[in-house]
Amino acid sequence: MQTLFTNPKVDPSQHPDLNQYFAFGISVDCVVFGYDGVDVKVLLIKRGTEPFLEYQAIPGDLVHPKEDAVTATQRVLKDLTGLQNIYLEQLQTFAGVDRHPLGRVATIAYFSLLRIEDYNPKPSSWATDAQWTPIQQLGEMAFDHKEIFDVALERLQRRVRHKPVGFELLPTEFTLTDLQHLYETLLNTQFDKANFRKKILAMGLLLPLDKMRKAVRYRPARLYKFDPNRYEALSNRGFLFEL
Amino acid sequence: MQTLFTNPKVDPSQHPDLNQYFAFGISVDCVVFGYDGVDVKVLLIKRGTEPFLEYQAIPGDLVHPKEDAVTATQRVLKDLTGLQNIYLEQLQTFAGVDRHPLGRVATIAYFSLLRIEDYNPKPSSWATDAQWTPIQQLGEMAFDHKEIFDVALERLQRRVRHKPVGFELLPTEFTLTDLQHLYETLLNTQFDKANFRKKILAMGLLLPLDKMRKAVRYRPARLYKFDPNRYEALSNRGFLFEL
DNA sequence: ACAAGATATAGTAAAATGTACTATAATTTA
DNA sequence: TAAATTATAGTACATTTTACTATATCTTGT
């Protein structure tokens, strides 16, 4: 069997039936992860209309006719947080036939990471509806958003072990203990403290600062910051981040 | 700024302008990899019509209105090879505004792995146009297919190191040297023979057979086959394939 | 039949890495 | 100033990786 579009002998522009193939909607949905020092959280909106009234949903939007998917996602993110240049990675596309009651909508899912402290809701936007939700406390979600979230979390857990993207979730200046806690909650494991330090420092990706964490009850720890240039340089020489 | 679709106070079904958002075409494109014992190859078709007349292209097709993406990809694969139950993994979606001259088409790219010996072109289909092309000898390709291929190859190289999917490219019965050659060409590296054997065998994923490779000039090597059940069992116990 | 050629398979020792743990330092609070 | 608590350094053992050597097994040519 052969269809119009793939048969080289058929000129699709002369087939009016082709219109039925151009009736899809495309949306982007973005799973936004944050970390507040204790919990890993995800930015969800609450729907104020049917279908799925009052359900939690991943922020997303239809893609405009002349807009590419990344641009659309950045627009969603900017509308929601006011931020630009956020870590963004395409996750997977969900194209089930009945996933959307309004029509045939395929959604290109992304996930992004940001520092919760930077999150600055814009009042004129969805901000009032948006809330950081600990990933353990997710209720039912609209559409197939729960499935999308699950895939996103799995991807995040894998990604964070193979690329130094965890830093996107931390304040620019952090202690090694902060970093360890992040990884422990993210991956749901425990690390030996001394060995974790050794391993991370041995990579040479962290820039020790001449500052210490203040206002802490006991001995303050040194602050570090991630050095993206160093990572770039090492990457080119074949270095692979692994944790 | 807020758009129709995401504003909870707007009922999209009452907005005729919404139609312009439902004018996308969605296609699937599948990068099919094979291995003939020497080269890693990719299954490409040659286009017989404008645009991109005579260009090489990744096999693909428009998704039908009531068809999900995986089904569509399986249809393409079956039409092309006559095979079913082939390894299939979603790669990434390419949704650039001008990537297709016919209209706004977003393509969901997949990649799949199959044993070249199983490949059995169906004459009534695209088979006459399809050819296994060594991945070093790719010419210019239609649309953004070169970009799609590049992403697919990168993904394959990563995937093959973290999941035992390389076996999908080999005959069901193979020697350890076969396996090593496959990985060496795929990853463009060299392995120490003895150590490669030890590492692979130590995983316990291979079933040694009571057969030897025949018709070989010198000492014949033992044949093995991959044991998917064993992998499943080990996976559940936290085993991670890594090479 | 047997030596030569070629690959398969086994084994081993050094190097590197990972793991578990102990010790010491630095800081705040009582 | 001592006690509490966390940060950081160090060390010894176990495990894994790496580089290499030795032996086994098979086919081909004489």
Please give a structural write-up.
The structure is a homodimer of 243-residue chains. With 243 residues, chain A is an alpha+beta fold. The first copy, chain A, folds into two domains: 22-154, Nucleoside Triphosphate Pyrophosphohydrolase (Alpha-Beta Complex); 162-236, Orthogonal Bundle (Arc Repressor Mutant, subunit A), CATH 1.10.10. The first copy, chain A, is 26% helix and 23% strand. The first copy, chain A, has five helices and nine strands, in the order E-E-E-E-H-E-E-E-H-H-H-E-E-H. Chain A has helices at residues 69-81, 145-162, 176-187, 193-203, 228-236; strands at 25-35, 40-46, 56-57, 60-62, 87-94, 105-113, 130-134, 206-212, 222-226. In chain A, strands 1, 2, 3, 4, 5, 6 and 7 form a seven-stranded mixed sheet that branches. In chain A, strands 8-9 form a two-stranded antiparallel ribbon. In chain A, a hairpin with a 4-residue loop joins strand 1 (25-35) and strand 2. The radius of gyration of chain A is 22 Å and the shape is elongated. The first copy, chain A, starts with 24 loop residues before the first strand and ends in a 7-residue tail after the last helix. The interface between A and B is large, with 53 and 52 residues. Chain A binds a DNA duplex (30 and 30 nucleotides) through residues 175-177, 192-195, 197-199, 212, 216-222.
Lay out the secondary structure.
2 copies of one chain form a homodimer.
Chain A: E1 25-35, E2 40-46, E3 56-57, E4 60-62, H1 69-81, E5 87-94, E6 105-113, E7 130-134, H2 145-162, H3 176-187, H4 193-203, E8 206-212, E9 222-226, H5 228-236
Parallel strand pairs in A: 1-6
Antiparallel strand pairs in A: 1-2, 1-4, 2-3, 2-7, 5-6, 8-9
Chain A binds a DNA duplex (30 and 30 nucleotides) through helix 4.
